[in-house]
Amino acid sequence: MYKKKIKEILIGTNNKGKLREIRDLIPKRVKVLSLKNISANHPKETSKTFIGNSYLKAKYYSKLMNKICLADDSGLEIDLLNKAPGIYSARWSGKNKNFNLAIKKIFKKIQDKDLNWKKRKIKARFKCALTIYGPGLKTISVIGKIEGTISNKKLGNKGFGYDPIFIPKGKKITFGQMEPKVKHRIDHRQKAFKQIRKFF
Ligand code: IMP
Fold first, then answer.
1. Among protein residues, the one whose CA lies closest to atom 14 of ligand 1
2. Could you report the per-residue pLDDT of 175-195, keeping only the tens digit for each?
3. Which of 88, 103, 160, 183 for mutating ligand 1's site (highest number of atoms within 8 Å of CB)?
4. Cα(112)–Cα(15) distance, rounded to whole angstroms?
5. How far, in whole angstroms, is CA 162 from its chain's centroid?
6. Does the pLDDT of residue 103 top 70, yes or no?
7. Rounded to an integer, what distance in angstroms lies between the CA atom of residue 130 and that of residue 12?
8. Candidate list 72, 73, 163, 187, residue with the active-site label
9. What pLDDT does residue 1 have?
10. Is 114 part of the annotated catalytic residue set?
11. What is the dihedral of CA 30, 190, 50, 137, to 10 degrees?
């Protein structure tokens, strides 16, 4: 049984969107610290797994600031591409974070595997790993996922990253066409957060 409730937490991300989303999911009585105004180098994401990368980020920022830290790692796995882009999801968009390019790359790789892919269901899932690491704390790592398929064209502009090509299972529209409020009720980040809420 986990006794110590967390009262203060550093969020190990430089992404403002993620910080906002995570802040919204943490109870208001917990003090949330960010990396804002801290000119830290980022750790290299050298692990081959989402959990591994979330762990190394949480540990790195925790040791740097001597605080309990929550870090995440997320991405899209496509079965036909042997789970690519996976942990390389952000890296496929290049230095300029160009997701048009990353999506084109995905379509090209799928097409190379199967010329008839547009008539098939191409199975995929988003995953989000979260790790909480800190002084005097037993490390916590969880993973949330949402299954779905790849749309045969880019649809919608409400989301970010790979949202315009991901259709969650049981729905007829992409994450990119979905109201953010609706997406956030069912997505991988929300599912991961549900598992760690009890620690706050
Ligand atoms: P991270 O910052 O290393 O976790 O990289 C995650 C990458 O995965 C992002 O840059 C996005 O490309 C992709 N990704 C993760 N979650 C989502 C999502 O909810 N929608 C769209 N793309 C996502």
1. 75
2. 999 999 999 999 999 999 999
3. 160
4. 33
5. 11
6. yes
7. 10
8. 73
9. 46
10. no
11. 30
Cβ(158)–Cβ(178) below 8 Å = yes
List, in order of start, the domains of the chain with CATH numbers: 8-199 (3.90.950.10)
The closest of 145, 157, 137, 148 to 199, measured between CA atoms, is 137
Distance CA 187, CA 63 (A): 30
Residue 15, sorted as left (phi over 0), alpha (psi -120 to 50) or beta, turns out to be beta
The one-letter code for the residue type at 61 is Y
Tokens found for residue 182 = 């609706």
What H or E segment, with its residue span, contains residue 105? helix 99-113
- Ligand 1 atom with the smallest distance to the CA of 50 is 4
pLDDT digits (tens, 9 = 90+) for 54-70: 999 999 999 999 999 99
Strand partners, 166: 150
- Using a 10 angstrom Cβ sphere, with 0-12 exposed, 13-18 middle and 19 or more buried, the burial of residue 170 is exposed
Name the β-bridge partners of 143.
129
pTM: 0.93
pLDDT tens figures, 129-171: 999 999 989 999 999 999 999 999 999 999 899 999 999 999 9
